[in-house]
Amino acid sequence: MHDVVDHLRTMYENTPVLVAAYDPFDRLRYANRAFRAAYFIEPAEEPFWPDLMRRNFHAGRGTVIRAPDFEEWLVSTLSRRGKAGFRAFETDLADGRWLWMTETVDAGGWMLCIASDITSLRAEDRAVRQDRDFAIKAAQTDELTGIANRRYVTAMIEDMLGQPARGDGPAGSVALLDLDNFKYINDRYGHHVGDAVLRDFARRIQALVRRTDCFGRVGGEEFVLVLPATSASQAALLIERMLTVIRRSRPLNDRPDFAYTFSAGVAESMTADCVASIYARADKALYAAKLAGRNQLILDGTPGQATPRQA
Predict the structure, then answer these.
(1) pTM of the model
(2) Number of domains in the chain
(3) 136 Cβ partners below 8 Å, 6+ apart?
């Protein structure tokens, strides 16, 4: 068996195909010689994917990123990276190569990336294929914040609820996050400040989201977190950290004392749940958090919950 493993390791190292594996925290744990060369990674390095992309972007190498603001591109990309069990796409490198890349994510959040050089294949069709990929991304993206939109989040909830049961645990949880007193912010400071707050919120929360989770904006100041294979109590631990991060945020350079908060409601999946039912229970918990004074989290089923708000 050891001979087989050693032989496979040698083959991976010598193949021109790019091979890499990332752990659930998006840290590189394995990369073969071809992958390390393409993305300028030292043999002993294990960088986090965002850090790797950031340094290559600023050095003008690695993946070609057609965005004037790297950090906005990163937030948008992270909202979809690794959310599906498998995806395939084309990408180009600064050295002129064109790659066909696949990403396979297992139940534990590990991602296997495999890329082949397709530079010589039907180069005249690249623009058409790239336009198609951009159109798909736009259809899944909230225009203001760059994170996932309602359509994409809804599909992720459906996918979570459709997964086969894993032991006695739930399929997952859904959390609704709503900025507190957002109308007051718009009325007092103007919509341009409101938009800046929404972008700040999206960026800070996305930085705390696990790869297996999905974070998106569903309208106005309301956002959704989809947390597969996560109980309500586990979700609460994640969201409590998010509450703390947002309380400390000061998003306006010209108003250093300006702060804002959000409220959250969490619902754990039940056997017969559909998108509408789990969403409604999370909405009921969110409404209870608002009534309880805002700037807090309430779980579905907490005693004393109020009647959910009307649409």
Answers:
(1) 0.77
(2) 2
(3) none
